[in-house]
Design goal:
This protein is mainly α. It has one domain (2-54). Helices cover 52% and strands 0% of the residues. The protein contains two helices and no strands. It has helices at 2-24, 36-48. α1 packs across α2 (36-48).
């Protein structure tokens, strides 16, 4: 059972550090309208966690087709 709780703590710390990295990059500033790409980039940055400080700079590109006329 102890390994499970240690694993949970590691995952929690990983995500907290990812949140700090996203905050340092200014992703949580209120810019009004948030696009799919911005939300995806923030999510991937948080999930990448400490890898952000090792040079990982995740970006998400959302190409949503425009509706036909």
């Amino acid at each position: 059972m102890r390994a499970g709780s240690i694993g949970g703590v590691i995952v929690l710390l990983w995500l907290i550090l990812g949140g700090v990295a996203a905050y340092e990059r200014g992703y949580f500033k209120d810019t009004g309208d948030t696009s799919c790409a911005e939300a995806g980039t923030v999510t991937v940055t948080v999930v990448a966690g400490p890898l952000n400080w090792m040079g990982v700079n995740p970006k998400v590109k959302c190409d949503i087709p425009e509706p036909s006329k």
